[in-house]
Amino acid sequence: MRRLSALLLAGLVLAPAAAHAATKGPVFGLRAVGNNARGYFVYTLTAGASQSGAVIVSNVGTAAGTVKLFTADATTGNTTGTVYETDKQPKLTGAWVRLSQTSVTLAPNAHKTVSFTVHVPAGTPAGQWVGGIVAETSHALTGTKTNHKANIQIKIRDLTIVAVQANVPGPQRVNFSFGNVTTGGQRGFQQVLLHIESSGNVLTKPTGKVTIFDSSGKVIETLAYTMDTFLPRTAIDYPVLLKKALPAGNYRAVIHLATAGTTGAAKAFTAAKTFAVSAANVKQVFTSASPTQAPATVASSSALSGNRLLIGGAAGGAIVVLLLLWWLLRQRRRRVRGQPPTALRSSPSVLAAAAAAATEEPPFPEPPLTPAPAGPPTPPPPAAPAVPATPPAAPPAAPAPTAAPARPAECTPHHFWEVAYDRGQLGNDGVWRFPHRCRNCGLELLASDIAAASLQADAPAPPR
To answer: Which residues touch 295 (CB under 8 Å, ≥6 apart)?
Structure first.
């Protein structure tokens, strides 16, 4: 799912071409009747009451088609924000909404109004409840076949969702509690996961910070965070990206969270939790090559959350999957041509040599020539008696650059590295490095990953 998130960002550049491809066929939209400004429904209903509404289903594509209509419960996404459980049978707010029909067939540029009824069950407690009306179509996308390669076929789900919020009158509560703190992450980015639960009954958008202490009580770092919508009666493991890597050991986290209360005044919550970082977690996070930039924080209902992919608009899903197909085909062609799919990072020794060369001072400059004063020429001094000249000693020759060490035949074309992840060392730059030993020639060195170890092994030795 991380890969799809990156492609979704790339879609901002490639969207025109992808959107054109996506409109070849039926493309359905969904709009809330009578709620053009807000775009979704908000009803105030007492327990046992009902309310009617309607949505407009439209086909803006180039061919006739059929769209499926159903309802879903809403929950809080892994990085906060409202997401919809479109793969589950609704049990809460989604089950309160009854549609007049579950499918619509439309010609191009046609539309139809579909009515629905919201019924809040008797005995429902006070609070804000959220569900959604979903319009879904699906189709398969097949890639271009290449020589000796199988076709890639992807099933695309196009989802358009309109929210339905039911506010049941009664006392409003804002309350948060904290569970265990754990760590996770991958590709060189380590996260601390805060288990946060909203046991209140209203929607909130909290902010806060978490401070990490080591086993001696020393502060390692303080990280601020800003959340999107947090739904009541939900809980998540909220990821906060660490700026400094944590080696294996025991730690303590002090969590602060603040949000507006029901009367408008801020309400704060605090908890202290101990947690441990295992060697297995360090290995998981720091054994793969790092990406070129930190992962983007996803915090809206039109982003990725866990295994749920929600696209705002019918063409959005096609855009993302077309970009995914383009990326997969591009990677395949690169491998066929013998190019690596990802760039290798420079080894520490190469970077150090480059830094030293950049900071080396230039030779001491010669003094400027001073012109002789005007006047008659000065007679030359009397010649000194001839003395057998001793040839000056030749200056020492500059050391010749040392060539890269010859690679043993058994390590051609590359070394076979065995990595001791349990003996990693955290450098002052915040990068973990691990002992890498070639099982054929016995060469051992310290590097962040296999790519860096190979570059370091092939780098020329510094002159002595």
So the answer is: 2, 5, 189, 241
